[in-house]
Automatic annotation (TrEMBL):
The organism's place on the tree of life at top rank: Eukaryota
Signal peptide residue numbers: 1-15
Biological source species: Dreissena polymorpha
SMART domains: Tryp_SPc (SM00020)
Protein name from the UniProt record: Peptidase S1 domain-containing protein
């Protein structure tokens, strides 16, 4: 079994017109359900050259938190952020399109123990071109290193690949349980999981289970009303015949809270 980062580029037409072609989108959390419009105001889509690639979370008026592998090798000029979006086919006029002024990957991304360590990054929005205040959309980040969220009921959201391969035009969600560290290591092996870096989750409301997939990378895991994780990696293929066999793995935000605060100039 192979591990896989959950980043993916969807063909979604170009730049400002990308919302007009929903049939080109392949987007859904595995075995997820449609979110209520506005349910996850912190959720954003990260575009590369006008195409949906990853998710992210608003953590302040100027800053987005996402996965490092989503921005690795990218430049600010070929990326953009869209906030306050629910439906690609019926976007309305309230979504906000932002150019990007700065990308900051964690300096130790890919360095250290476990699979895909330190997979976290910050994106600074260009507020000159789009002077919209989105601070009300921000979600608090997890800061308590002692709260491991073991067995907490959490929620994930995103526009990642569906179990059937068909597209969804709307933001989807899934309720998930955060695994205790020992259970996560049992699922993925001791060499792949480091408690300080990783947080595992899986939906268990049905026998098929639920989880994140390609295109969900960088998106939010919310536990106890805080941003507890950033979508990082999972099982290659995400599911077996529609059944999620392994938990999705997230970068544990509380471990990086100090780095986030310092890097964004105290934005959180």
């Amino acid at each position: 079994m192979m591990l896989a980062l959950l980043c993916y580029v969807f063909a979604v037409a170009s730049a400002l017109n990308y919302l007009e072609d929903p049939n080109k989108i392949s987007s859904r959390i595995i075995n997820g359900a449609e979110a209520t419009p506005g349910e996850f105001p912190h959720q954003v889509t990260l575009l590369r050259n006008g195409y949906h690639m990853c998710g992210g979370s608003v953590i302040s008026n100027e800053w987005i938190l996402t996965a490092a592998h989503c921005v690795e090798g990218q430049t600010a000029s070929n990326l953009a952020i869209v906030a306050n979006l629910h439906s690609f086919s019926n976007p309305g006029s309230s979504y906000h399109y932002f150019y990007i002024s700065q990308i900051i990957m964690h300096p130790q991304y890919g360095v250290g123990s476990g699979a895909y360590p330190n997979d976290i990054a910050l994106i600074r929005l260009n507020k000159v071109s789009t002077p919209v205040d989105i601070s009300a959309m921000a979600i608090p980040i997890a800061k308590d290193l002692n709260d491991k969220f073991a067995n907490a009921q959490c929620v994930i959201s995103g526009w990642g690949v569906t179990e059937s391969g068909s597209g969804s035009n709307v933001l989807l969600k899934a309720d998930v349980r955060a695994y205790p560290h020992t259970e996560c290591r049992t699922a993925w092996g001791t060499n792949n999981i480091v408690e300080s870096a990783h947080l595992c989750v899986k939906g268990e409301s049905t026998a098929a289970g639920s989880g994140s997939c390609n295109g969900d990378s960088g998106g939010p895991l919310v536990c106890k009303n805080v941003l507890a994780g950033v979508t990082s990696w999972g099982r290659s293929g995400c599911h077996v015949g529609g059944t999620v066999t392994h938990p999705s793995v997230y970068a544990r935000v509380s471990t990086y809270a100090s780095w986030i605060a310092t890097t964004c100039g105290g934005c959180v």
